[in-house]
């Protein structure tokens, strides 16, 4: 079973954060960089609150979206 990687969009930068969204699964990766503290990364999915990546695993959640190859047959008018 292959683990899908996220396909991140171009970063959207604000003053204290940089956000990227995965095209496939909609996960949002937020890199927070506020003055005086070390940057950290949060992940958001489906309207839930921020989930800190350093909750013990420090890992990016796996991509739950369809791979582009698997969705290649979809025809969009
Ligand atoms: Zn993804």
TrEMBL record:
Segments of this protein annotated with the region Disordered: 44-77
What's the domain of life for this entry? Bacteria
Q: Where is the composition biased (Basic and acidic residues)?
A: 44-57
The molecule here is called Uncharacterized protein
């Amino acid at each position: 079973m292959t683990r899908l990687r996220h396909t991140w969009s171009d970063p959207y930068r604000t003053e204290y954060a940089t956000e990227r969204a995965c095209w496939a699964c909609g996960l949002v990766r937020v890199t927070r960089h506020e003055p005086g503290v070390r940057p950290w990364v949060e992940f958001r999915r489906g309207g839930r609150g921020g989930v800190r990546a350093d909750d013990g695993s420090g890992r990016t959640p796996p991509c739950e979206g369809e791979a582009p190859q698997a969705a290649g047959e979809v025809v969009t008018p």
